[in-house]
Design a protein that fits this description.
two-stranded antiparallel sheet, 20 helices, single chain, Alpha-Beta Plaits
Length: 437
């Protein structure tokens, strides 16, 4: 009979954390060779799925051998730890797609079967490592098939690699029913909508930073907050911060080369480089800082909005084929999706932004009255103009400021009665005419 001691419980926890960490590292460090079952269902890439499964088998074999031989963990303890890690890996999707309900569609049955195979294959790989591969490497066991040791080794490798064709076959069988549009992810969109309505303690911590970043870049607070919430829901994991710190501190060249996403807003290094116009070495560690990262995110959103507007103004709407509106464009640009073949994440981001960000322009942290104001003067000195402009910028963001042949035109907007009164006082002191649009 198998008994679990206190020492075994600690070993199980260590094993679970270790394999969960490795799964996260696989996803973050080798994104081109990572594919979940559901991801294959959407992308239909057998090669990527096979490579992902092969990488998973390799790190399961290596880590199982290390724990079993190097740290003398019991085999049963390792199996339990791997089971828990694999189960926790698929559990969010099982809940999200309600796969435990009694009545399921054919697609849901296939999806659930795929997750069961994933868990079983992970444990089976560890079992073969302990019972077959390690004894063979130690010379404690020989498997003779037609007296040919080479065939024995090939048979072992084939047995260990067996999950690859099984997982690929199941995913391939299910992908024929997929139609890539938001209706495909209707249930997930519903769940996401509820998740976005829940207060997030991390965003509450950065509430005023978010407001300042939104105002500085003239974007909606709701737009910036929604993007940050989406990143926290989809890409924020307990190990990410530790991995990001290690990569950005000790493995800078690898991090830059792989163009990893960093920080609370998961900003790609290449995107930050384009927006900041600096070498990655100068800002890489700064991206780990929440305030700096949110500021870059706001700049990215402002850049995307302006890019969209420039395309429309230039009459080159053909470049937006597949894009329905500004929110669709922002979503595709932010997650790096093709316009005409949107990925699941882009579709969900687009739907979420459309629902929660009713405006792309800054309108304050709370619903307030919006004032569009124009200040004019027929004659003003350069020094007085600069002083006036500086005073106005301390209260609001200027949309346009121009001084030509002594004539001044300043267009701005504000959102609070207090700001409006300050602008009126400044204008009165400088004998400036105030007009409301």
């Amino acid at each position: 009979m198998f008994w679990i001691s206190e020492k075994d419980i600690i070993s199980i926890i260590i094993t679970t954390l270790l394999f969960s960490f490795l799964a996260t590292a696989h996803r973050v460090l080798l994104p081109n060779k990572y594919s979940a079952f559901l991801q294959f269902k959407s992308e239909e890439d057998p090669k990527k799925t096979a490579e992902s499964t092969a990488v998973r088998i390799i790190y399961i074999i290596i880590m199982t051998a290390l724990l079993y031989v190097g740290f003398s963990f019991r085999a049963e303890v390792i199996y339990i730890g791997i089971f828990i890690a694999a189960f926790l890996n698929v559990w969010p999707a099982v809940i999200q797609y309600r796969l435990l309900r009694f009545v399921k569609t054919k697609s849901e049955w296939i999806l659930l079967t795929g997750y069961v195979v994933f868990i079983t294959a992970s444990i089976f790989t560890a079992y073969l490592t302990v019972k077959l591969l390690l004894p063979m490497l130690n010379g404690e066991m020989q498997i003779m098939l037609l007296d040919n040791q080479a065939i024995s080794i090939l048979t072992t490798i084939f047995a260990i690699a067996l999950p690859i064709p099984i997982e690929s076959f199941l995913a391939k069988f299910s992908c024929v029913v997929v139609v890539q549009n938001i209706d495909t992810f209707k249930e997930e969109a519903y769940i996401l909508r509820n998740q976005l309505q829940i207060e997030n303690p991390i965003l509450n911590k950065y509430k005023y930073i978010i407001d300042d970043a939104a105002r500085e870049n003239d974007i909606s607070v709701a737009l910036l907050s929604t993007i940050l919430k989406l990143e926290l829901i989809y890409r924020e994991k307990i190990y990410y911060r530790t991995l990001e710190y290690i990569m950005c501190t000790f493995l800078k060249s690898i991090t830059i080369k792989r163009d990893l996403s960093v920080g609370i807003a998961q900003i790609k290094i290449s995107t930050a480089q384009k927006i900041l116009r600096e070498n990655p070495d100068s800002f890489l560690q700064k991206l780990l800082n929440g305030k700096f990262n949110i500021g870059v995110c706001a700049k990215v959103l402002r850049y995307n909005i302006e890019s969209y507007e420039r395309i429309l103004e230039s009459g080159e709407e053909w470049r937006l084929e597949g894009i329905t509106d500004i929110y669709d464009y922002i979503a595709c640009e932010y997650v790096g999706s093709l316009y005409d073949k949107k990925e699941r994440t882009a579709l969900l981001y687009s739907a979420a932004l459309r629902s929660f960000a009713s405006s792309t322009c800054y309108n304050g942290s709370e619903a307030t009255e919006l004032y569009h104001i124009t200040l004019k003067a027929e004659r003003i000195e350069r020094g007085a103009y600069d002083k006036l402009k500086k005073a106005l910028e301390s209260y609001c963001k200027l949309k346009e400021a121009m001084l030509e042949d002594g004539k001044m035109l300043i267009r701005l907007k504000c959102f609070h009665d207090y700001e409006l009164q300050q602008i009126r006082d400044i204008a009165e002191e400088n004998e400036i005419d105030v007009y409301f649009e």
